[in-house]
Amino acid sequence: MKSIISFVIRFIPRKYLQLFSHFFLRVMAIFYSGKNVTCNVCQHSFRKFLPYGRKARENALCPNCLALERHRLMWLFLQKETDFFSSKLKILHIAPELCFIDRMEALPNLEYITADLESPLAKVKMDVHQIPFEDESFDVVFCNHVLEHVDDDHLACSEINRVLKKDGWGIIQSPVYDLEKTIEDKTISDPAERERLFGQRDHVRKYGKDYASRLNKSGLSVHENLFVKTLSQELIVKHALPENEIIYYCEKGKK
User: According to the model, what pLDDT value does residue 81 have?
Assistant: First the structure.
């Protein structure tokens, strides 16, 4: 199973995975039935989650809703640390994750807009370098695992800052590695070389510990939130949460 999933992730375009993978995985859910772990996004329980990743991580992917470890952590953060489920909010969700879309659309307090340049799941076709909304349009912006793909992450974050309302906030996750400084070379276009240097064929940089400070140069105010460290080990095991994942919580920068 690990090798199959790794192959599929590497070589099948993401838009096709988004459209069709959940049908196959829901069949797989039958074989993973049990009570050892529970996905807090969809509330389904299994003996374990599916492996996932180019170097497949055990106990990672919910076969029912396709939530990964980071998605389950983010959902819990939204429940415990924000007013996301209670206040009237206008949301921009860039490159929306399948596990979130229907659930966020169903929340009566939200005006929920999904947008992306390529994703078939998004309702608005949008380049994050040029967001087609007016200044201060949104209370919340989500942009997860996008910036490692875009040509100019500074411009993308500047655009997110522009469309956030004065008291707006967001979550901007990306893979962050144990490097002192982000690795980037815009002259590299060969997919194999990008995979070797940046971890994936469609990545254009590999973020290091300077991720938050790098994004702050755009005008956003990005904070490293160690929410997972406040949780009990029992809860971490129950939901198979990533024990060292930092949540990059951002606010509109003050001029």
Answer: 98
Q: Which residues of the chain have pLDDT under 70?
A: 1-27, 29-30, 255
pLDDT digits (tens, 9 = 90+) for 237-251: 999 999 999 999 999
What is the Cα–Cα distance from 131 to 209, expressed in whole angstroms? 27
Among the listed residues 98, 13, 80, 44, the one whose alpha carbon sits nearest the alpha carbon of residue 225: 80
DSSP label of 208: -
Name every residue whose Cβ is closer than 8 Å to that of residue 13 and which is 6 or more positions away in sequence: none
Q: Around Cβ 134, how many Cβ atoms within 10 Å?
A: 9
Q: What is the pLDDT of residue 201?
A: 83
Q: Helices 2-11 and 14-31 meet at what angle, rounded to 10?
A: 160
Integer Cα distance of 17 and 112 in angstroms: 23
Domain ranges of the chain: 2-67, 81-231+241-251
**For 156-167, how does the pLDDT look when each residue is reduced to its tens digit (9 = 90+)?**
999 999 999 999
Q: Provide the sign of the torsion angle of the four alpha carbons 193, 196, 202, 208, taken in this order.
A: negative
Q: Indicate the CATH number of 81-231+241-251 among 1.20.1560.10, 3.40.50.150, 3.30.300.30, 3.40.50.300.
A: 3.40.50.150
**Token pair 């009570």 is at which residue?**
35
Q: CA dihedral defined by 207, 211, 214, 220, rounded to 10 degrees?
A: 130
